Amino acid sequence: MFNWTPHGLPSIHHNHLIQKVAGQDYYTIGANNIATDTYTAEEGPLDGISGFGYDYGKFYVSKTFFDIAKRRRILWAWINESSSATDDLRKGWAGLQAIPRNVWLDKSGKQLMQWPISELEKLRGKQVDVEISFQICDFEKAEVLKLDPNLTTPQLLCSQNDASVKGALGAVGLLVLASNGLQECTAVFFRVFKADSKYIVLTCSDQSRFSLDDDIDKTTYGAFLDVDPVLKKLSLRSLIDRSIVESFWWRRQSLHHS
After folding, report:
1. How far apart are CA 123 and CA 116, in angstroms?
2. 62 and 25 in contact (C-beta within 8 Å)?
3. 230: Cβ–Cβ under 8 A, 6 or more apart, which residues?
């Protein structure tokens, strides 16, 4: 359990609680009663089994520390690879550390914001670092999405509507780690749907074609982005090296895969 304010500084008013479920890390925002030593999570929609996800991909064993010198909280975590256990034993290693992130509460105090730490700028040129923004138009063309809390999950929607499926507003994004002829590629993209008189942004990381090797994990990941596309441009930042893609949507959700 850690204390938060909208600027990441220590406070007794907001706390976030790490819960590890099915190999992924989730958090909740709430209040800590020092007198009774109890924590109460705020009510509201949650993405995962028990809270919001730090990341909607391969991201686990997370931890944070408060950087007193720069007055910020930094999040560290681990990324497991998509290779098989047999390949891991042959290589003699498996997984690697994710890029450290600066995390803070958004202005509403309801959700964490996150962004790669500023020190990463010194590494530009040693890896691909892409930043792009999208202005959406023609919202009346958006496909209608019937939301069922028991059936409608972002990951399922991304799997059913991969990058090859053409929609009215999507798929729009990037093809990364692509081979000549696109036999191998990873798609990082979004779609816009209309549901319950509002527009919903679905972000996806489609790994179904990222390798010709069948003995690896090709799970597709997805998340709903908590932003109104009518009022805001959609921004995407993807950090890409030889085997890892770390994508950040509008400083909120992130999608990792290896």
Report:
1. 12
2. yes
3. 136, 139, 199
Type of residue found at 211: S
Question: Kind and range of the H or E element at 160?
Answer: helix 154-160
Question: Is there a contact between 190 and 162 (Cβ–Cβ < 8 Å)?
Answer: no
Enter the tokens of residue 243: 């085997």
Side chain identity, residue 59: F
Main-chain phi, psi angles of 91, to 5 degrees? -75, -30
Contact 159, 56 (CB under 8 A): no
Question: pTM of the prediction?
Answer: 0.84
Rg (CA), the chain: 19
Report the C-alpha gap between 125 and 123 in whole angstroms.
6
User: CA–CA separation, 142 vs 36, rounded Å?
Assistant: 49
Q: 107, 113 in Cβ contact below 8 A?
A: no
Q: pLDDT, tens digit, for every residue of 58-71?
A: 888 888 999 999 99
What is the C-alpha separation between 112 and 6, in angstroms, rounded?
9
Which pair of tokens denotes residue 213?
Answer: 């090797």
Which neighbouring-strand residues pair with 130? 238
Q: Classify 245 in phi/psi space as left (phi over 0), alpha (psi -120 to 50) or beta.
A: beta
Over residues 73-132, the pLDDT tens digits come to 999 998 888 888 888 899 888 888 899 999 998 887 778 889 999 998 887 666 788 999
Contacts of 254 (CB under 8 A, 6+ apart): 54, 55, 56, 57, 59, 101, 114, 246, 247, 248
Distance CA 33, CA 39 (A): 6
